[in-house]
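Researcher: We're teaching a course module on how sequence relates to structure. For the next exercise, students receive a sequence and then see the predicted structure as tokens, so they can try to spot secondary structure elements on their own. Here is the exercise chain.
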Amino acid sequence: MDKGAESTRVLGPGDAVEAAALLRAGRLVAFPTETVYGLGGDGASDEAVAAIFAAKGRPSFNPLILHVADEEAAARLAHLPEGARRLAARFWPGPLTLVAPARAGAPVSLLARAGLETVALRVPAHPVAQALLRAFGGPLAAPSANPSGRISPTTAAHVLAGLSGRIAAVIDGGACPVGLESAVVGFDDAGAARLLRPGGLPAEEIEAALAAPLLPAGEGISAPGQLLSHYAPRAALRLAAASPAPGEALLGFGGAAGAALDLSPAGDLQEAAANLFAMLHALDARGGPIAVSPIPERGLGRAINDRLRRAAAPRERSPA
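Model: And here is the predicted structure for the students to work with:
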């Protein structure tokens, strides 16, 4: 539980100074970004980062993204290779996380880095996130504001459903417009870019900016969001379903017949990405298994399918 928190306060978009004061006191504050709501803690404080892991029940080997106000702030924390600077100039602020070697002595908790020599950095575009970062004045460690492995939150209500009473506050900034976590890109020793996690920025756009193909992620956990069983609802999930089986609720796409909810009746992958977690939350709340229509494996569809495969992966269930 967050230090001293007996109830979770709901703050408004204009309460960045108040939220920053809570963060400086070592408390946890959830806040909206253009991707999903983040669970923010002081990224330089091992205690605050440990509180994030505790609130989420997150495996300690899964590193956290550090959110900063701009590229200059990111460069103070990491050695950004040429490819990273090119992507930052093109896509920051926005739904892109860059993984780069941490600078010696940079004010980043080693726990946030999960013991790695690299640090994951993002400059969010959401005005509430920007106001909070500038009021706080330092990096915020901020994974998605949900219990680890559960569906990522795209509204303040989703945050409260999973973390109420375990964090100090949530800033209600409305629904997240992208609704899918950031794409994560790292770099090998030769400076070649690797797609460590598909996300809210299509890989094709990243490759176009680099004028080079993205390499696959490789082995091991090197960035947030790489655990196999992740983003999981409590209900069983069946993918690429042509139609629902008896007792299943169908999460459709493209106007699928018999859908309880449809990610995008028009087959728009951007709309589907924005709706993914909110609709999984809604169907999970009904109870019972969920079937999901096939999603095209292109553009944002790659990230949607990545999340769905992780959500459907076998995992240990906690006792009822």
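Model: If you want an answer key for the exercise: The mean pLDDT is 91. The two ends are 20 Å apart (CA to CA).
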